[in-house]
Amino acid sequence: MGEPRMTALTIQWVALGLCVVGAAVRIPGLRKRHGRTIFAALVLLTVAVALSIEPIYLAVDGFLGGANIANLLLRLMLYAVFLLLGIRMAAAFDSNLARRLVVGPVGVTILALVVAATLYFFVTSELSGSSTALRDFGDQDTVQHYAAAGRLYPGYVAACLVIPAVAAVLDHEARTIHRVASAFLACSFSIVVVFVLLRLTPVNLMAWDIVLPFSAIVLTVVGLCLIWLSHTLGRRRTRQANKLV
Q1: How far apart are the C-alpha atoms of 102 and 84, rounded to whole Å?
Q2: How many CA atoms lie within 13 A of 73 on its CB side?
Q3: What angle do CA 10, 11, 13 make, to 5 degrees?
Q4: Phi, psi (5° rounding) for residue 206?
Q5: Residue 132: left (phi > 0), alpha (psi -120 to 50), or beta?
Q6: Nearest partner of 146 among 111, 100, 115, 101, judged by Cα
Q7: What separation, in Å, do the N-terminal and C-terminal C-alpha atoms of the chain show?
Q8: Which of 159, 169, 226, 234 has the least C-beta neighbours within 10 A?
Q9: pLDDT digits (tens, 9 = 90+) for 21-61
Q10: What is the mean pLDDT of each run of 10 residues along the chain (245 residues)?
Q11: What is the rounded CA–CA span in Å between residue 80 and residue 135?
């Protein structure tokens, strides 16, 4: 196994670990109904990342019948993750435009079309035998279209959030930790957009085909954890101030 392959595998496990931690730190807040949407997104993202790792994928897909149903579930989970992130991040960045683009008529239509295309290309592909990321079936046109459809919705939502995230970074009235969190998220969304655009070209990304999207996941989870920390500190200060009144 070459160094690029090892790097890609390492970042997959790092992303999985961070997703688990990111979801775990939000569990206490669920009792007070804090951060339920992001918690759900992180749980789904954790499962999706786990299914991208070969030993886990092969075990799960084998249990499901060895027809790569696990890959389809991974795709649908990612759509749900980006939908939930789009809603919450638009609110966090106070961007009505981003919210309309994600959950308005255009966003809903794009999501519906992408889901329909994903299901169609999956059903029309010959996928007998488990294969992580469907690598063994990459010569099929339907599999290539399936993969392209799978990148479209995440790329769209990320594109909707890049500018609001950058604006939050530049907001000098916001808390420093919020601006740092926004910087991580802005980098993450930018990487997703760049990755989607690169996959439209004939460029062979090699190990970067894994490094780029998983780097985006790492940055996203770190950004979400910092936002959680910012809100937690804010609520704590508010309680302390109320006690002094």
Answers
A1: 9
A2: 17
A3: 70
A4: 50, -125
A5: beta
A6: 115
A7: 63
A8: 234
A9: 999 988 887 777 777 899 999 999 999 999 999 999 999 99
A10: 66 93 87 84 95 94 94 96 95 93 96 97 94 92 94 96 95 88 96 94 86 94 89 65 52
A11: 24
pLDDT value, residue 240: 57
Tell me the backbone φ, ψ of residue 201, rounded to 5 degrees: -100, 165
Rounded Cα gap, residues 47 and 28, in angstroms = 20
Secondary structure (3-state) at 125: coil
- Predicted pLDDT of residue 4: 57
- What the block records as the tokens of 98 is 């981003």
Which pLDDT does position 1 carry in this prediction?
47
**CA count, 13 A, side-chain hemisphere, 204:** 1
pLDDT in tens, 91-122: 989 999 999 999 999 999 999 999 999 999 99
CA torsion angle 184 201 157 178 (round to 10): 10
Q: What is the pTM of this model?
A: 0.91
As a whole number of angstroms, the distance between CA 160 and CA 13 comes to: 28
